[in-house]
């Protein structure tokens, strides 16, 4: 449960783990929901979080990571907010068309950029903004087909966007503010997320599907894919917190759209799903936008790191000048002291010398 020996290696590993596990769980859930008819997505997510918490509890028990308690009210609020955002995402899909739901997911990136700019004073360069715009246009071309709008669905989508953005920003800021790892934060917030969805899940699923999760026919294949989905979800949840902690909420959303493109490509190539040149062009534009975003983000982070290292070196040298007389002398500090001494009143020795000159 460690997060890598080096920053770059750890980030690449987190991104790779997130992509692989997310694509795997989409394929597993597609078989579970579309083929086997288990369409209780919110309840399934609550089971995911419950299994994740149990897995992390075992990992903590065998000392794979250290439990680090911090502000309980912050953890509880964060966990409940995460659970609410997941429930609202499922409601948004249920009360809106697929196209409008995709637009809701696309709106999360500009909303996150706006919130971080206004409240966290974070700056996004023009190059980053352009690459994000290209990404959103590409994903929109590839995924948005119909745009049926209704008032209730639009209101739910609005709350979905806000809660998702705030929850992901908090995932990043809490880790930095309280100096906790992604594993420690996930371990402490999982019970609140799972509890929120365990309580609300059956009601939401009943409203969306007109079926009862407790009266479903749980045969061997359904149970097998539920267990498999829960096991994969441990990696999904862990990598989500890891990616947001190591990068940013915006980068995590960009990664999410990469997963969407990969799932679409998987369906076109392997499952022979119908597609058009519009879908292909959209995916290509989105991937090009992701490449630009990755390049610009990396180059700007390297530039910032270089500036920070220079400032740190200058500060160390300055501190050394104040403590080391030799270095201070080389820097002119001693000269400044000599100038102060020359401007001071003359000493007794100078006065006596002056008197001898006058008598002579």
From TrEMBL:
Domain of life: Eukaryota
Membrane topology: Multi-pass membrane protein
Major localization class: membrane
InterPro entries: EmrE-like, Sugar_P_trans_dom, TPT_transporter
Annotated signal sequence range: none
Alphabetically ordered keywords of this record: Membrane, Transmembrane, Transmembrane helix
Domain Sugar phosphate transporter: 22-294
Subcellular location: Membrane
Residues annotated as transmembrane: 12-33, 45-62, 74-93, 127-145, 151-170, 190-208, 220-243, 250-271, 277-296
Protein name, per record: Sugar phosphate transporter domain-containing protein
Species, as recorded: Sphagnum jensenii
Highest classification ranks of the organism: Eukaryota, Viridiplantae, Streptophyta, Embryophyta, Bryophyta
């Amino acid at each position: 449960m460690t997060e890598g020996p080096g920053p770059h290696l750890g980030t690449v590993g987190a991104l790779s783990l997130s992509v692989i596990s997310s694509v795997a769980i989409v394929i597993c859930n597609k078989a579970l929901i579309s083929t086997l008819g288990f369409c209780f997505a919110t309840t399934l997510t609550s089971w995911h979080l419950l299994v994740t918490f149990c897995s992390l509890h075992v990992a903590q028990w065998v000392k794979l990571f250290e439990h680090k308690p911090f502000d309980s009210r912050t953890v509880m609020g964060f966990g409940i907010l995460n659970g609410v955002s997941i429930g609202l995402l499922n409601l948004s899909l249920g009360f809106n068309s697929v196209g409008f739901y995709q637009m809701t997911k696309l709106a999360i990136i500009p909303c996150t950029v706006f919130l971080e700019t206004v409240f966290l004073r974070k700056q996004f360069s023009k190059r980053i903004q352009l690459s994000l715009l290209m990404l959103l246009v590409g994903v929109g071309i590839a995924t948005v087909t119909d745009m049926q709008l209704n008032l209730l669905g639009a209101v739910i989508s609005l709350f979905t966007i806000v809660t998702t953005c705030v929850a992901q920003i908090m995932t990043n800021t809490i880790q930095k503010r309280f100096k906790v790892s992604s594993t420690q934060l996930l371990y402490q917030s999982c019970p609140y997320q799972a509890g929120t969805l365990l309580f609300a899940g059956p009601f939401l699923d009943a409203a969306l599907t007109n079926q009862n999760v407790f009266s479903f026919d749980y045969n061997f294949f359904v149970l097998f894919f539920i267990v498999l989905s829960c096991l994969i979800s441990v990696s999904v949840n862990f990598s989500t917190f890891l990616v947001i902690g190591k990068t940013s909420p915006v980068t995590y959303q960009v990664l999410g759209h990469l997963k969407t493109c990969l799932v679409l490509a998987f369906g076109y190539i392997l499952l022979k799903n119908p597609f058009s040149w519009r879908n292909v062009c959209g995916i290509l534009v989105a991937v090009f936008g992701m490449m630009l975003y990755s390049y610009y983000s990396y180059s700007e982070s390297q530039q910032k790191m270089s500036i920070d290292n220079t400032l740190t070196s200058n500060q160390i040298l300055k501190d050394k000048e104040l403590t080391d007389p030799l270095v201070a002398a080389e820097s002119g500090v001693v000269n400044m002291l000599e100038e102060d001494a020359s401007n001071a009143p003359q000493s007794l020795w100078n006065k006596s010398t002056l008197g001898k000159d006058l008598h002579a």
